[in-house]
Specification:
Its EC number is 2.7.11.1. GO terms for molecular function: ATP binding; protein serine/threonine kinase activity. The chain is mostly helical. It has a domain of 45 residues. It is 35% helix and 0% strand. The model has no long low-confidence stretch (mean pLDDT 84).
């Protein structure tokens, strides 16, 4: 949503994504140059989309990350 495109399989139909096993083969997230995003945002997104399930955050872990906490 941040970049206005899918993190994996951009430009492919859902059928192509499934047939070509795009998500199963997506080992990392590639970030476009624009819009510029902070290193903290990139790290947060990468952890949410980690390839290995044991490395990927669940919703409670993601919600507790300091990146999402309100700054006062």
């Amino acid at each position: 949503m941040l970049y206005g495109k899918r993190p994996f399989g951009e430009g492919l139909t859902q059928e192509q994504v499934f047939r070509d096993r795009v998500v199963l083969n997506a080992r990392q997230v590639d970030f476009p140059a624009k819009p510029a995003v902070s290193p903290e945002a990139r790290a947060f997104i990468s952890r949410c989309l980690a390839y290995r399930q044991q490395d990927r955050w669940d919703v409670l872990t993601a919600a507790a990350d300091p990146y999402l906490q309100l700054k006062r």
